[in-house]
Amino acid sequence: MPSSLLAELRGPIAILKLNRPHKRNAIDDETVIGIDDFFSRLPAEVRAVVLAGQGEHFCAGLDLSELQERDIREGIAHSSLWHRAFEKIQFGKVPVVAVLHGAVIGGGLELATSAHIRVAERSVYYGLPEGSRGIYVGGGGSVRVPRLIGVARMMDMMLTGRTYAAEDGQAMGLSTYLTEPGEGMAKGIQLAERIAQNTHLTNFAITHALPRIAEAAPATGFAMEALISSIAQADPEAKSRLNAFLEGKAAKVKRPD
Prior knowledge:
The protein is α/β, with parallel strands linked by helices. The chain has helices at about 30-40, 70-90, 105-115, 130-135, 140-150, 150-160, 165-170, 185-195, 200-215, 220-235, 235-245, and strands spanning about 5-10, 15-20, 50-55, 95-100, 105, 115-120, 125, 165, 175-180.
């Protein structure tokens, strides 16, 4: 692990933190490679990951000092490096919960949207300042961000430099949960622990099959759903859980408090 990342294990939960607080956790190549390696080599016992930032911010985006000397060929390779690393998050071995606070800017937002669940503290602010920098998103933002907030809103953010507060991001769908400052990590770990209780096969189906089914033509989606559903319910652990429910040993779904 590079010094720009901190990792720890808590039973079935792994926690990965960006560790460049002096740079507002801006991401350099070493960090991207470290992220790729971390998610490629998760121990078999890990069932969920919490992704967060050390210090006052989640991530202020790409370390712009790394762009100064790149030509077009090198730029394509650099973008592809980010794509490969963030794919390991979105379509990796386990679900990922991102805990956001402070700046979630540019590449930081691209990183956050590669996670499956996002917990935002009220200190969060979102931005895509690439337009004013003379550059363009390169870490998958064109693909992931519009699926959450729409093309028009992302276009406005990039053209005008508009930023959004945590409450706006929650309303738009950039975050899934909203907490008070300092409470995000506890919430993220709580969610990860809950996710870790699911069967591995169900979590895999939700994180890998669901987004692809949602983007497929309806007839293709129905066929994929039937196949994935039958595979999941045939799993021995699933059968054990269903029997426990039918025997009254498992909790029923209740109204929220």
